[in-house]
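Q: Make up one entry.
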Amino acid sequence: MLQLTEELEKARKAGGLSQEALATQAGLSRMTVQRIESGQIDPRLSTLLEMARVLGLELMPVPATLRPQLEDFVRSGGRLLGQPAGVGAPPSIAQSLADESR
């Protein structure tokens, strides 16, 4: 849980939001956001989902056994291992999804 709340805090800071602003937009108190980020409370899933929504994120449960492969995939920009980079390479899955969302 700690890693998830750390990621939410990083996203909040990267987005230039204060704890107060996140709390207001998520329908929470500033104290709740502060206590979640500091690890003082174990938040409900619905609270985490609402915080993520405000931050433009989507939570995705991933089995622990698949996490290393998923992280490698994301770090590679959505390219399969061994896939060539450069002009002749097909677009990465991640890039294709990013282009579609624009």
Notes: The first helix runs from residue 2 to 14. Residues 18 and 94 are 29 Å apart (CA to CA). The chain has a mean pLDDT of 85.
